[in-house]
Amino acid sequence: MRDSSRNLTERLINPMLSGSDKTLPLPKQSLISLLQKLAELGFTGARLPTDSGGSGISMLEYGIGFEQIPPVIALALMAHEGSTARLYADGNSEQRKRFLPDFVSGKRVFCTGSTEPDTGSDPRGVRTQLYFKDGKLVLDGRKMWISNVTVCDAILVTCLDRRNDKDGQRVVKVVVERDHSPFHSASIDTIGYRQGWFGEAVFDSCQVFPENVIESDRGGTAVLKSSWSVNRPLFSLSAVHLAQNAYNLAVEYACIRKQFGQPIASRQLVQKELSDIAIAIATSRLLCYQALSAIDDGTGTEGNSAMAKRYTQNACREAIWKSMNLFGAMGLSVEAKIEGWFRDVNMIAVGDGTNEILSLIHGREITGFEAFRGPVGSDRSLH
């Protein structure tokens, strides 16, 4: 799994990224072509059973392959595959039959819209609403920080169900197909992942098909929240990918860069820094693998995944920073590449839960107490 993913990256993905403007998103067709190649590895249907077009791979296998993919493409894959998994988990048989084949094959690009300007880690705080207007079903609201939104063919939107109750607080999801239900989307300029597709969506009386509403007995946020337990260690493995790249270059540079007549690799402090970087990468990778393996054997928890992400993104960001410092002034240059990886790793700190939220999720699991909002298991509990 690792070798196949690495070969695809070296043969196709890296040349595509290096041959394009590093400050602009790749064309949509580039993403589609990559998704179709990733589909051949089973990555676009990793969480689906084989009888529904899934690959049947374990989450640990998925993570091992996922780590080899450049983070900007890995994030697009995770958004696409994770949305497909959510649709499968909550959708009815007709919706699965209609949507899944094109998403699993990579023919159409999918994403999820959950976060809003005033709502992030609390999915029950959404204000986007679904209601009837002049006899038509419409969607009103705004979603932000969405991977793939500027190039997606469909988006899975979390919203309040106001079809029968104008003040209703029930949360549902609806698949909004861009061709049939046009909506506005725009890129958000960010510190890193500049070649990716990151943005916001605005739904202004956007007419949607009633048959695209996803009804779930588990509630509109249950699958969304459970999917984060997989996403967090996956997302964190992108930080491992970046730190590993930075470490590899730092070792190579330290062995050829000379100061005071000797390679700087011969100096005690440089060797200590390289050792610290290697340890940070190894522990980060193993925490993520452990969280994914636990999901495979049914013992995975939100706390495991929160711990893996919080530790990994902090440890790998520090590892990349140390690698930059070993380059001296050269580390600040675009030519050395590490400055770009440092910008990219900072994108991982916020997505799918900030450090502060993750510490509360983990702390709740350790103590059994909700840090705010009342007892664990209450309707308004965090995540």
Task: Summarize the structure in short.
47% of the residues lie in helices and 15% in strands. It has helices at residues 2-18, 28-40, 59-66, 71-90, 93-105, 222-256, 268-296, 302-326, 338-345, 355-367, and strands at 110-113, 129-133, 136-147, 154-161, 171-177, 184-187, 198-207, 213-214, 258-259, 262-263.
Question: What is the SS-derived class?
Answer: alpha+beta
Order of helices and strands: HHHHHEEEEEEEEHEEHHHH
User: How many DSSP E strands?
Assistant: 10
If helices are DSSP runs of H or I spanning 4 or more residues, what is the number of helices?
10
Measured as a percent range, the helix fraction is 40-55%
Distance between the termini: 32 Å
Shape: globular
> At the first level of CATH, what is the class of the largest domain?
Mainly Alpha
The main β sheet shows up as:
8 strands, mixed
Number of domains: 3
CATH topology of the largest domain: Butyryl-CoA Dehydrogenase, subunit A, domain 3
Judging by the overall fold, what is the CATH architecture of the largest domain? Up-down Bundle
The chain-level mean pLDDT equals 93
CATH superfamily membership of the largest domain: Butyryl-CoA Dehydrogenase, subunit A, domain 3
Radius of gyration: 22 Å
Content of β-strand: 5-15%
Low-pLDDT runs: 378-383
